[in-house]
Amino acid sequence: MVDTQITNVKSSSTSSSITWTWNNGKDTGHVRTDKGAVPPHSNIVGESNKSLMSEKLSNLQQQHSYSLTIHNWDANWGNHHQATSTAKTRSASTSGFALISRMEEEEEEFVAFKEFFDLLVPEGAFLTHYTLPLDAQLDSPWHLADVLALPQQTLVQDTAILITQSFNTPDKLEALALIISSDGRQVLISFQFTPNTGKQEFFPVKSDRAIDRVTANPALVQNDTGLFQLLVPRNGIVFHYTHTNETIEGPWMLVSRFAPPQETEVIAIALVQRDNAGGLIAVVRVRPGQDSDFLVIYQSDANFAWRGPSRVVAQDQPIDHVTGNPTLLRSSNDDQEDLELLVPRDGIIYHYTHPFTPDLEVDAVASGWMLVQGLQPLGNDPNKQAIATSIRQSAPGRLEAFARVKNPGSSDLMIAYQFMKEGEWQEPIVLQGENGQPIIAKDSSTIDTPPVG
Questions:
Q1: Are 98 and 175 in contact (CB under 8 A)?
Q2: Which of 155, 280, 289, 352 has the fewest CB atoms within 10 Å around its CB?
Q3: Cis-peptide into 122, omega within 30 deg
Q4: Tens-place pLDDT, residues 263-318
Q5: How far apart are CA 392 and CA 330, in angstroms?
């Protein structure tokens, strides 16, 4: 077996495969590998900065279409790459709190990665950033890593925080928050920071001017075209902005708008990438004048042209009586790709699934959802109702759900569930900090100092 050093290698990922492309000075080529069929004894060598790799590849055929095995591949890498792709490119940041899974390069001779959950929680005058290794039990202590400072005389709206990790700056995290000023103005601010560096400062989110008059929870996602995509409800219209994912600072570009159904208002948006060309799927919680909140779906193409709305239907019944903010995920298990939807209805979280291919039209995505399971409330107490949710895929067939729940007589709690595709959602657990106390979310502005880890 001959090892060949190839430089200028770039990796890209879908939910089911990894594509490697390179130019070694004489030939250009690419190879696509199933994530579920990654060789169990190889390991990537080289630099991961800005997705550029210098790889040692084996069994290269001298042609433009290559087949290969990769020596010394870590047995967990296929699952890890899938989890990172799912977190960063496929799923929306949540509202009510914010959660992603993140990959961090370790300083070793070979490129190795450690993965984390990153949780951002509002605590009145501050946002607190907690981390947990992805391979830890969810009931393990979460580390308080950073405190994000807010402007004076403002507080975070109770359900509007977003977080992501750029492909191009993997050592940093990007966060957005919807804040309310003392004069009632609702504006977006943002942060870009290196984890575990303490107190973080904010900067404004702006297009040609500050993005203000925000009337509901925004949604943020990163796609394979190298853009952050941001949907912001403003005065009854959803504004669609884009920004290079090299940094979250600087002006956003307004590229499109769409309106909610007649005689409704937007309450919250869940957003995922539809395809590799930059198309998006948005599940929107809307509120009519008299009836209960319900869900509608919109779909955009690579040119930011939106189609919809189409009402979300599960087993021939509309998904209504929505009492909390939904979350959406594109998951993969072997060769099957699905949309996973979590939505609180009458305070109970329900999990729905839908087989997915990128060529589905908006009406087809809106219909045909199947109920998987209703998740057990914390302590089986119907008064501990979920107001916001998040869903992640940490490995093929394994999902994690997180929720912010009302805790009557006290502050809101953060809870988590785990699900295996062939099983059921487990009972909820309360997330705890390193001090052994539950992680709470406070919307009061009475907090004067950040918590101490």
A1: yes
A2: 289
A3: no
A4: 999 999 999 999 888 899 999 999 998 899 999 999 999 999 999 999 999 999 99
A5: 9
How many CB atoms sit inside 10 A of residue 261's CB?
16
Cβ partners under 8 Å of residue 293, min gap 6: 267, 285, 286, 287, 320, 321, 322, 323
Q: What is the pLDDT of residue 105?
A: 53
SS3 312: coil
Whole-number percent of the chain with pLDDT over 70: 71
pLDDT at residue 84, as a whole number = 29
Residues 6+ away with beta carbon under 8 Å from 338: 330, 331, 332, 353, 354, 355, 356
Binned at pLDDT 50, 70 and 90, residue 222 comes out as confident
Residue type, 158: D
Task: Specify the higher pLDDT residue, 17 or 316.
Answer: 316
The predicted model gives 131-150 an average pLDDT of 91
Q: Work out whether strand 17-23 and strand 370-374 pair parallel, antiparallel, or are unpaired.
A: unpaired
CA angle 133, 194, 450 (to 5 degrees): 85
What are the residues facing 350 on neighbouring strands?
A: 343, 374
CB atoms within 10 A of CB 416: 22
User: At residue 334, what is the residue type?
Assistant: D
- Please state the three-class secondary structure of 175-216 as a single string: EEEEEEECCCCEEEEEEEECCCCEEECCEECECCCECCCECC
pLDDT at 278: 85
Q: Is the torsion defined by CA of 140, 87, 269, 248 positive or negative? A: positive
What is the DSSP pairing of strand 198-200 with strand 143-149? parallel
Task: Please check the confidence at residue 220 and state whether its pLDDT lies above 60.
Answer: yes
**Do 29 and 21 meet the contact criterion of CB atoms below 8 Å apart?**
yes
Radius of gyration of the chain (CA): 21
Mean pLDDT calculated for residue range 342-347: 93
Amino acid at 91: S
Q: What is the pLDDT of residue 443?
A: 62
C-alpha 293/C-alpha 286 separation (Å) is 6
What CA–CA distance (Å, rounded) separates 248 from 223? 14
Q: How far apart are CA 103 and CA 329, in angstroms?
A: 18
10 Å Cβ neighbour count for 97? 29
Domains belonging to the chain, first-starting first, are 3-75 (no CATH), 80-441 (2.120.10.10)
